[in-house]
Amino acid sequence: MSRFWKIALIVIAVLVVGGVGFRLLHKPEEGAGAAHRRGGGQSTAQAAGNGQDKDNAPVPVTVEPTVKQSVPVYLTALGTVTALNNVTVNPEIGGQLWTINFKEGQAVHKGDVIAQIDPRTYQAAYDQAVAKQKQDEASLATAISTLDRNQTLVANGYVAALNMDTYRNNVAQLKATVIADEAAARSAKVQLDFTKIVSPIDGVAGIRNVDPGNVVTTTSSIVTLTQIQPIYVIFSLPEQNLEAVRDAFQNGANKLQVIALDRSDAHPLDTTGFLQVVDNQIDTSTGTFKLRAQFNNPDSKLWQGQFVNVQLRVKTVAGGLVIPAQAVQRGPDGDFVYKLQSDQTVAMQPVTVAGEVGDSHVMVGNGLTEGDQVVTEGQFRLKPGSKVQALKPGEVPQAPTASDTDKKKGKKGSGKGSSSAS
Q1: Are residue 132 and residue 198 in the same domain, yes or no?
Q2: Please, which residues have CB within 8 angstroms of residue 213's CB and are 6 or more apart in sequence?
Q3: Model confidence pTM above 0.70
Q4: Residue 202's domain spans which residues?
Q5: For position 390, which CATH number holds?
Q6: 306 and 326 share a domain?
Q7: pLDDT tens column, 162-206
Q8: Which H helix or E strand runs over 227?
Q9: In sequence order, which residues have a C-beta less than 8 Å from that of residue 269 and are 6 or more positions away?
Q10: Is residue 273 part of a domain?
Q11: What are the backbone dihedrals phi and psi of residue 21, each rounded to the nearest 5 degrees, phi first?
């Protein structure tokens, strides 16, 4: 064997021995690493399992059943309060204003003297008229007495028949004069009475326009009186509601109830009123028609010129399906609710809201039946098919945490989120 091959065999032997030694030295570390990797994989799987179990845990929610009840149906509008009567008080005669007998904003009654004009001139005119009447009445009495005396004398020929005609005509003339005097006295008395300015209605006095001492005429405005008990509310509705309102108005014996609410719809301003008039024409510029309701307004909560929200009750739906308003969610395809299934999961159920029932409930037109359980609290954690835990009535599920919110945002970002509205 040559020197070359000996060297080659030695090199190969060294490489083999070195490789075997390296393998033996690193085998325990690789085993430990594999075991470590196997252990780590088991921990990850266990953690994933724990997270999945957490996601699959029942979601606590509050549920309430769908109930049937009689539901009043209202038409809503914006109305204006209008006084039953508005009267501007003007003097019937001229003269100096002596006194003002009311306070601005004060309630006055029909017949109350609210102002006084200087009566002296009119008192004198009335006294003259009365005196003239008495004078002519005395002349009439004398003429009647003369006629009676001459009636007995004419038969004996002591008085000519021509003179008797004169006596009779004199009596008739004086009777007419007395009648004219009576009329003049009554006219003077009316003028004298006009010096006392009286309230023509029950109402509330506004701001006065004159002061005592001013000389007023028949064109001078003393004050404006507003009658607010009872009072009107005028409002308008779209013309598509005309047929329903007219049918209800005629069939309801003219007793359609009307409620006047404050601008925030928080509470009624007065006892229930009733629809009084449906206007006889439609406004072509707005496509609406006017209506007028009357309220007793005992506490004067309705005021002239005030804007109020009006609810006109046109009918009552017997056996309407009612659910809490917070159960209704808004989705891309319309309104829906989470309906509780028999297996304690929830499903998205499309519904149609037919109207509001008070401040906290709505009437459902279709999509539900009586007794269906709907979720009213806790929808933020739900999606179709979610397992839920129904809480007792009155219990409220815990509010969403920051992690729940982040998780929900993450799902929405990955395109795997639910379409329900929180």
Answers
A1: yes
A2: 96, 97
A3: no
A4: 87-216
A5: 2.40.420.20
A6: no
A7: 677 788 888 999 999 999 999 999 999 999 999 999 999 999 999
A8: strand 223-238
A9: 260, 261, 262, 301, 302, 308
A10: yes
A11: -65, -45
